[in-house]
């Protein structure tokens, strides 16, 4: 048995089996360096998924690692009961780079907790309890986050918050109303008024949405979408939470946060994943009036604002700034998109190419006319990519989307390399009519 198989066997025996592993023969990684991962047998993989949209500035980035290790040697834990330099400096920086009047932060250890915090604040601020979320969304694995989740395959048991209603999303490739943008007049947005009127008491606490739906398969709404959506939420007296767990930290190109691409100011932002290049951190930021709405009860997070993870986040932000990775995400992202559209011309199985910046996806179909999801074929493609030594993510309600979110440090050379490997993998796999 090779070492990968040995580790996967132990994983199956001692870890919850609900934790799915990629590939028929899962890979056990031993080492990461820049854009590459190495498995326990020493095989190299080009990482175009960035460890689930998390490795923003490359694996074991030397600048970030050095700062984190120094901090680890100096002070590891105090809890939120004591202020520390790292947490306040990071919070100040985040108030500076976030849009609008977002100012006060709360740190946790995961995206799920970040979303829990935001919904708690939406409820305390408005004094209401009903929340809206989007279909095809993912919000995390806590009970509330599961209730917000709009993707059936990711909902375990029966999520228990009955106060969440799910709006149709702006999935233009598969419009829920069978229309086409822009002649659709964005019925997915106007329908939210109907959703509020018919499925809630009319007084909502707010809505949470990902600017680009990650697990949903990088579904990217039209440019007017969030302006109109947020107006409806505000008119109904609710607040708008932008879940930036996947779309933060420059990933969409040119701006720190994906929601800024739509020219709007959310009432809260949540994030995690790429914020500290892989260290466990969750973050919620709100306007001062929303942030100060918790009037009773003491609120703490044992690991929240840990000096090590906040140092990691600050080091990641500084690295992105120093190397102008926001511009790189725009430029290399545009190049990647162009190459993917080139592949689409040659491979009929690619029904749609979508995304923004260094967050791009291909949706696979068996027939471009019927748009039948190419489900087993996508699995074959993923396996063929593995054989090529290239890692990408799977997504979409039917698992027929391949997602790309490489470290923001990649350049055209890595894109050309990846595109060559994708081309060969697609040629090997089943093609559409
Ligand atoms: C958009 C979004 N929100 C929230 C989460 C939950 O984050 P975590 O897994 O850190 O709890 C995820 C995780 O994939 C996510 O993609």
Portion of residues in helices?
25-40%
**Secondary-structure class:** alpha/beta
| Overall strand count | 15
CATH architecture of the largest domain: 3-Layer(aba) Sandwich
The CATH class of the largest domain is Alpha Beta
State the CATH topology of the largest domain.
Aspartate Aminotransferase, domain 2
- Overall average residue pLDDT: 96
Q: What low-confidence regions span 5 or more consecutive residues with pLDDT below 50?
A: none
Described by the principal axes of the CA atoms, the overall outline is: globular
- Beta-strand percentage? 15-25%
Structure explained in plain terms:
By secondary structure, the protein is an alpha/beta fold. It has three domains: 1-40, no CATH class; 64-322, Type I PLP-dependent aspartate aminotransferase-like (Major domain) (Aspartate Aminotransferase, domain 2); 326-403 and 420-433, Aspartate Aminotransferase, domain 1, CATH 3.90.1150.10. It is built from 13 helices and 15 strands. It has helices at residues 3-14, 50-53, 62-74, 85-97, 111-126, 143-148, 187-199, 225-235, 288-291, 307-322, 325-346, 375-387, 412-428, and strands spanning 29-33, 36-39, 44-47, 104-108, 130-134, 164-167, 204-209, 239-243, 268-271, 282-286, 350-356, 359-364, 390-391, 393-395, 401-404. The strands form three sheets. The chain has a seven-stranded mixed beta sheet, sandwiched between helices. A four-stranded mixed beta sheet has the order 1-2-3-13. A four-stranded antiparallel beta sheet has the order 11-12-15-14. 50% of the residues are buried. The structure holds pyridoxal-5'-phosphate. Residues 110-112, 115, 138-141, 210, 214-215, 243, 245-246, 272 line the site of pyridoxal-5'-phosphate.
């Amino acid at each position: 048995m090779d070492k990968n198989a040995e580790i996967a066997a132990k994983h199956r025996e001692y870890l919850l089996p609900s934790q799915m592993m990629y590939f028929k023969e899962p890979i056990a990684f031993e080492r990461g360096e820049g854009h590459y991962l190495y498995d326990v047998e020493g095989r190299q993989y080009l990482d175009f998924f960035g460890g689930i949209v998390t490795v923003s500035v490359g694996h074991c980035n030397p600048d970030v690692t050095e700062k984190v290790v120094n901090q680890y040697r100096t002070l590891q834990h105090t809890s939120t009961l004591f202020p520390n330099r790292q947490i306040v400096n990071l919070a100040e920086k985040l108030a500076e780079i976030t849009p609008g009047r977002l100012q006060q932060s709360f740190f946790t250890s995961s995206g799920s907790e970040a979303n829990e915090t935001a919904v708690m604040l939406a409820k305390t601020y408005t004094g209401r309890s009903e929340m809206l979320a989007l279909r095809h969304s993912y919000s995390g694995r806590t009970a509330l986050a599961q209730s917000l989740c709009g993707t059936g395959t990711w909902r375990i048991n029966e999520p228990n918050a009955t106060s969440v209603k799910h709006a149709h999303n702006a999935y233009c490739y598969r419009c829920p109303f069978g229309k086409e943008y822009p002649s659709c007049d964005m019925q997915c947005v106007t329908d939210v008024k109907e959703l509020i009127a018919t499925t809630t008491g009319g007084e909502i606490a707010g809505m949470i949405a990902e600017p680009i739906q990650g697990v949903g398969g990088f579904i990217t709404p039209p440019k007017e979408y969030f302006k109109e959506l947020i107006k409806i939420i505000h008119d109904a007296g609710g607040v708008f939470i932008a879940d930036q767990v996947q779309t933060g930290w420059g990933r969409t190109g040119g701006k720190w946060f994906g929601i800024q691409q739509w020219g709007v100011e959310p009432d809260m932002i949540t994030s995690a994943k790429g914020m500290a290049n892989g260290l466990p951190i969750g973050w919620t930021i709100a306007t001062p009036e929303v942030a100060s709405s918790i009037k009773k009860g003491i609120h703490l997070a044992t690991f929240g604002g840990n000096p090590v993870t906040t140092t990691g986040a600050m080091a990641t932000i500084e690295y992105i700034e120093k190397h102008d990775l926001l511009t790189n995400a725009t430029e290399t992202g545009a190049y990647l998109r162009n190459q993917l559209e080139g592949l689409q011309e040659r491979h009929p199985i690619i029904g749609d190419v979508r995304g923004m910046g260094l967050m791009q996806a291909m949706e696979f179909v068996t027939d471009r006319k019927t748009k039948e999801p190419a489900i087993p074929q996508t699995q074959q493609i993923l396996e063929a990519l593995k054989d090529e030594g290239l890692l990408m993510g799977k997504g979409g309600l039917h698992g027929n989307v391949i997602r790309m979110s490489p470290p923001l440090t990649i350049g055209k050379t890595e894109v050309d390399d990846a595109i060559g490997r994708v081309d060969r993998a697609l040629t090997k796999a089943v093609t559409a009519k």
